[in-house]
């Protein structure tokens, strides 16, 4: 059911070609991803959905270069990741990819400002003050910059994490269940932020979620089941998504 | 990145402190050893400089075998002094005596038993380094003066009587003066009495000789020029040195003797550091495992593997450097304490402060830091293997992430490893000789040789499991919490193994020492039972001054005691046999009556050969003859301690179970002559038939007390007991030094417990929630600690036994060493290990019990 879409055409940022990923060996092997071909154009907000075990997280890990496929290839911003060794891949990732995690994953020993600037510190780069100020204003965390994660609410922590993901002006931001650990009010704020990152800051966002409300904020919806793409199309409203998910069982 | 490291460090202060202790103690012993030996060295160097300061040229006998105190060298004949006096440019020359002696007060109490004592002759005032505090220098035969320290310690006053037993004779004198040496109350800790020259000569048995000639130059004659002129008139076997040359010579002799003490102490410092390396390795491994998510996050955010390795190595560097600096400071702080310790043993070192050489600082810092960094390398590599997805997934185990190495990277790693190993071995060799090199190589193998690790890992895990099952019998009867403790111990077998291994090393070495000591005692006992056919043994009553021989006049005197049939003297000396390396041990015996008190197993020859031995022949020990292919009739050319070259013919080959006989056995007559050995080591007494020990021994002792108060007699049983005492005190000394490594390993147990409790916070919260009381939590932790300690103790004992067996089977194979397992001692060691486990658990157990239930359950 996949829609062939040559990598690089129409401003494609990330593309996967016939991706498979097996875990384990021999009879005990589990195929988490069974031949997935998909492309993500720049400046769009895509949602990947699917029931537990459908392979959506595996797909995201492979697209982001966090894991290596058993076969197939991933092209990220024009570079085929399989051709890179570990260090080159790490460098590419740190320049082109931003992450937002379900569990925020802030370093507890650093304050909010240091956490936001951490990717630049790792890369040994100086922050762009204008961009930093703009991000802070966008995520509305300016008054909490000196606080450590333990002193922030879940929503505030996730906003810091979004600023951290955007600080390097990545080619693409991957968000892994970004609202999974948040109440509905904080979820709404985070989704609105991701939306604005696409609309106002021109970023590309790929979000993995099983929250229909979250998926409804996206421009495009991809559904996975049993390691294959079962739906790829324009965004649906919440009711349409729920119907789709029910059909997958 | 640096900030992430520093922050992480600051957050884990406690862990850092506990881990650093592993390095601090080892480095403290290391720097303390250097500081102590350097201080002693400088102190004595200044003593030598002061003694020599007012002399232009000093003549002493050569010591072809170095400054080994157990070998006598020939003295300087009076004729040489007369000759020196005629040398142009000599303003004044005099001879002096300085000889080992024992000093007794009027009640017969021996003075200064912990350090050697000397009798010296007064010298003309221009050469005298001593100054009187009260009274005057000895002027006539009955006069004696003593150092101020001894006078104060024993409450001596002018007019008191003192007895002095020299190497030849004993005399009683009146105290006429109390002395200081260069404003110090004593002479580097030794007690010294001065008498007139003729008296000192008589006591030392040097009727017409001197130990040293002192020469003053006439005005306008340089010491160097005079030295050359004096040397020109000296017979061979004597050397003239200027005062500064003499000081340098004496200092370097001392240095080589101190070098042994230094190496001995450094071995224990390296053992402690080696044990510390285990703890650092373990702590870092646990920390890395606990930080998996954080490390994965850093990877996901773009940190390279190199950056992660560097961050963990930086942590190790910081910790190692911090620990080494603290250890160095502790060592400096310990030095005055060591000085006090020496004072309490009667060694008042001249005030020269604490000598901290640059070498001490460099070696301590480099060793502490290097060992920490190396121990942290493997955990660092593991840290870098954390896959980025670890930040997103729960329960990722390390090492699954497929890593692509470039060939260049692989080569670079290999080279770095090789360089690190070479550097370590070189450092070890530099600091502690071959032993240091071996220890470092062992560390390198543990750290670097991964194939060996892989192959050994399953066997190690199986050993861990079975050992744990065995020792858990000790706690399993305590019900649920005993079982929980066992399961906790087995949960991370690698971690338990590394923690227990640290303790295992210390316990293993203690076990090894204990087995060796027990074997030594058994061997001595058996040797005496088998070989000694006499009734009494006479030797020096005070072993600490063991350099002192016993007078050669004793046998003649004792033969007059009723009931005594034979008295035979035995002396020890050395020779350098031509064509062999090192020195050979030489035993001198009296051929006439030796066989009547001592049983030998002849390989070639018989007791008759021994009885017929003369100054041209020698009897060889079988081991020695076999290893160098000597036969009866072989001729051995050799150098004697007095510098003479002689040739002896082999007359027989013998096996001596008690190893009283050295490589070579010669006659006493030969020893007195070319070997210049004038004192004996021991005398054997045999009784007339029917004579009883209870009757004869008191009379023997009475005679010895009167004429040779520095000696005493012992029955074979008493002799065995006193030998056993010496072995025991040596064992105690070694155990005290090894205790340091054991203390270090206990901190390792504390560390592991604290970390694993931290890991199990949630589980402990659950246990508390379902009704476990704090006391039970403490109990569980305590049992776990006891298990780890018992595993370490048991494996250590096995390791010690195996090592001792190997040594017995190889190096000691033909020495007659009896392998004995001191079961009682080993059981005590195991119990002590368990108790140590309880102590180590005290604080972690309290921490575990204090965990708040609700907060624990909320922990991720």
Concise synopsis of the structure shown:
Chain A has 249 residues and is of the alpha/beta class. Chain A has helices at 56-63, 86-96, 112-123, 129-139, 154-166, 184-199, 212-215, 238-248; strands spanning 12-23, 30-41, 45-49, 71-76, 79-80, 97-100, 172-176, 205-208, 220-225, 228-234.
Q: Can you give the helix content of chain A as a percent range?
A: 25-40%
Q: How large is the share of residues in beta strands of chain A?
A: 25-35%
Biggest interface found: A-B, 31 and 31 residues
CATH topology of chain A: Rossmann fold
Please explain how this structure is put together:
- The complex is a heterodimer of chains A (249) and B (860).
- By secondary structure, chain A is an alpha/beta fold.
- Chain A has one domain (42-57, 83-221, 228-248): Rossmann fold, CATH 3.40.50.
- Helix content of chain A is 35%, strand content 25%.
- Chain A contains 8 helices and 10 strands.
- Chain A has a 6-stranded mixed β-sheet with strand order 6-7-8-3-9-10, sandwiched between helices. In chain A, strands 2-1-4-5 form a 4-stranded antiparallel β-sheet, covered by helices on one side.
- In chain A, β1 and β2 (30-41) form a beta hairpin.
- In chain B, the strands form 4 sheets. A 6-stranded mixed β-barrel of chain B has the order 4-5-10-7-9-8. A 6-stranded mixed beta barrel of chain B has the order 15-16-21-18-20-19. Chain B has a 4-stranded antiparallel β-sheet with strand order 3-12-1-13.
- Among the domains of chain B are: 55-255, no CATH class; 456-531 and 717-860, no CATH class; 536-714, no CATH class.
- Chain B is globular and about 95 Å long.
- In chain B, 57% of the residues lie in helices and 16% in strands.
- In chain B, a hairpin with a 4-residue loop joins β8 (161-165) and β9 (170-181).
- Chain B has 26 helices and 23 strands.
- In chain B, α7 packs across α11 (407-448).
- The relative contact order of chain B is 0.11.
- Residues 395-406 of chain B have low confidence and may be disordered.
- Chain B has 860 residues and is α+β, with helices and mostly antiparallel strands.
- Chain A binds chain B through residues 57, 61, 64, 66-68, 85-87, 90-91, 93-95, 99, 101-103, 105, 107-110, 114, 118-119, 121-123, 164, 176, and chain B through 1, 3-4, 7-8, 10-11, 293-294, 297-307, 387-389, 391-392, 402-406, 860.
């Amino acid at each position: 059911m996949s829609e062939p879409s040559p990598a690089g055409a129409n401003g494609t940022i990330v593309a996967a070609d016939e991706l498979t990923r097996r875990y384990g060996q021999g009879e005990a092997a589990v195929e988490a991803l069974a031949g997935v071909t998909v492309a993500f154009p720049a400046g769009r907000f895509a949602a990947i959905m699917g029931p537990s075990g459908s392979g959506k997280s595996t797909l995201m890990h492979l697209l982001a270069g966090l894991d290596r496929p058993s076969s197939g290839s991933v092209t990220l911003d024009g570079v085929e990741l399989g051709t890179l060794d570990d260090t080159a891949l790490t460098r590419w990732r740190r320049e082109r990819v931003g992450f937002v995690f379900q569990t925020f994953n802030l370093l507890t020993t650093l304050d909010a400002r240091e956490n936001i600037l951490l990717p630049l510190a790792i890369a040994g780069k100086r922050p762009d003050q204008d961009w930093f100020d703009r991000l802070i204003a966008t995520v509305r965390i300016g008054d909490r910059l000196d606080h450590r994660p333990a002193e922030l609410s879940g929503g505030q922590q996730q906003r810091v994490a979004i600023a951290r993901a955007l600080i390097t002006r990545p080619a693409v931001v991957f968000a892994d269940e970004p609202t999974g650990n948040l109440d509905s009010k904080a979820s709404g704020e985070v989704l609105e932020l991701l939306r604005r990152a696409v609309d106002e800051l021109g970023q590309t966002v790929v979000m993995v979620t099983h929250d229909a409300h979250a998926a409804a904020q996206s421009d495009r919806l991809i559904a996975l089941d049993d390691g294959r793409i079962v739906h790829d199309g324009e965004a649906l409203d919440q009711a349409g998504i729920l119907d789709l998910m029910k059909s997958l069982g | 990145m640096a900030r992430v490291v520093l922050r992480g460090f600051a957050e884990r202060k406690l862990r850092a402190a506990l881990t650093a202790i592993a390095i601090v103690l080892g480095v403290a012993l290391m720097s303390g050893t250097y500081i102590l030996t350097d201080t002693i060295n400088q102190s004595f160097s200044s003593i030598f400089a002061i003694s020599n300061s007012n002399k232009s040229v000093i003549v002493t006998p050569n010591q072809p075998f170095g400054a080994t105190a157990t070998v006598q060298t020939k003295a300087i004949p009076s004729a040489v002094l007369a000759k020196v006096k005629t040398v142009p440019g000599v303003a004044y020359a005099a001879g002096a005596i300085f000889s080992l002696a024992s000093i007794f007060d009027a009640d017969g109490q021996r003075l200064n038993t912990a350090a050697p004592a000397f009798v010296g002759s007064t010298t003309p005032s221009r050469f005298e380094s001593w100054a009187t505090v009260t009274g005057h220098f000895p002027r006539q035969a009955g006069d004696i003066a003593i150092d101020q320290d001894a006078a104060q310690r024993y409450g001596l006053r002018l007019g008191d009587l003192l007895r002095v037993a020299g190497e030849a004779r004993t005399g009683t004198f009146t105290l006429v003066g109390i002395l200081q040496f260069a404003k110090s109350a004593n002479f580097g800790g030794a007690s010294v009495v001065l008498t007139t020259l003729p008296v000192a000569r008589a006591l030392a048995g040097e009727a017409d000789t001197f130990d040293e000639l002192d020469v003053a130059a006439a005005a306008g004659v340089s010491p160097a020029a005079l030295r050359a002129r004096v040397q020109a008139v000296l017979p061979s076997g004597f050397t003239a040195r200027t005062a500064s040359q003499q000081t340098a010579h004496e200092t370097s002799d001392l240095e080589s003797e101190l070098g042994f003490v230094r190496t001995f102490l450094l071995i224990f410092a390296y053992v402690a550091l080696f044990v510390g390396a285990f703890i650092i390795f373990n702590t870092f491994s646990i920390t890395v495992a606990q930080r998996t998510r954080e490390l994965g996050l850093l990877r996901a955010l773009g940190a390279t593997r190199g950056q992660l390795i560097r961050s963990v190595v930086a942590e190790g560097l910081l910790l190692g450097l911090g620990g080494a600096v603290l250890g160095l400071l502790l060592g400096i702080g310990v030095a005055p304490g060591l000085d006090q310790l020496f004072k309490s043993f009667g060694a008042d070192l001249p005030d020269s402060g604490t000598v901290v050489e640059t070498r001490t600082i460099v070696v301590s810092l480099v060793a502490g830091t290097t060992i920490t960094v190396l121990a942290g390398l493997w955990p660092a590599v593991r840290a870098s293997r954390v896959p980025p997805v670890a930040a997103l997934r729960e329960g990722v185990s390390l090492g699954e992430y497929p890593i692509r190495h470039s060939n260049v990277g692989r080569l670079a790693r290999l080279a770095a490893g090789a360089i690190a190993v070479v550097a370590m071995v070189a450092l070890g060799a530099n600091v502690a000789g071959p032993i240091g090199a071996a220890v470092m190589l062992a560390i390198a193998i543990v750290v670097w040789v991964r194939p060996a690790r892989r192959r050994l890992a399953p066997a190690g895990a199986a050993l861990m499991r079975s050992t744990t099952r065995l020792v858990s019998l000790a706690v399993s009867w305590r019900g649920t919490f005993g079982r929980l403790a066992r399961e906790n111990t087995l949960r991370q077998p690698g971690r338990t193994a590394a923690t227990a291994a640290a303790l295992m090393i210390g316990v293993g070495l203690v076990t090894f020492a204990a087995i060796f000591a027990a074997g030594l005692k058994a061997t001595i006992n058996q040797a005496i039972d088998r070989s000694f056919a006499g009734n009494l043994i006479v030797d020096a009553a005070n072993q600490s001054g063991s350099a002192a021989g016993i007078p050669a006049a004793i046998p003649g005197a004792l033969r007059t005691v009723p009931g005594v049939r034979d008295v035979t003297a035995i002396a020890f000396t050395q020779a350098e046999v031509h064509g062999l390396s090192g020195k050979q041990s030489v035993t001198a015996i009296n051929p006439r009556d030796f066989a009547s008190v001592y049983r030998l197993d002849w390989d070639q020859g018989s007791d008759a050969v021994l009885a017929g031995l003369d100054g041209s022949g020698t009897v060889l020990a079988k081991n020695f003859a076999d290893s160098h292919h000597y036969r009866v009739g072989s001729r051995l050319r050799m150098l004697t301690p007095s510098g003479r070259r002689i040739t002896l013919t082999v007359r027989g080959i013998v096996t001596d179970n008690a190893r009283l006989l050295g490589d070579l056995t010669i006659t006493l007559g030969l020893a007195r002559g070319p070997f210049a050995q004038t004192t004996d080591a021991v005398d054997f007494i045999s009784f007339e038939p029917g004579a009883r020990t209870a009757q004869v021994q008191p009379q023997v002792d009475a005679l010895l007390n009167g004429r040779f108060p520095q000696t005493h007699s012992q029955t074979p049983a008493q002799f065995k007991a006193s030998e056993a005492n010496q072995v025991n005190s040596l064992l105690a000394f070694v155990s005290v030094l090894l205790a340091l490594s054991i203390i270090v390993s206990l901190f390792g147990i504390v560390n592991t417990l604290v970390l694993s409790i931290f890991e199990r916070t949630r589980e402990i919260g659950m246990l508390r929630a379902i009704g476990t009381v704090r006391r039970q939590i403490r109990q569980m932790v305590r049992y776990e600690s006891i298990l780890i300690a018992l595993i370490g103790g048991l494996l250590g004992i096995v390791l010690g036994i195996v090592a001792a067996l190997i040594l017995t089977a190889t190096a000691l194979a033909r020495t007659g060493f009896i392998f004995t397992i001191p079961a009682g001692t080993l059981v005590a060691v195991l119990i002590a290990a368990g108790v140590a486990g309880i102590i180590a658990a005290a604080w972690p157990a309290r921490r575990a019990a204090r965990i708040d239930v609700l907060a624990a359950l909320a922990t991720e």
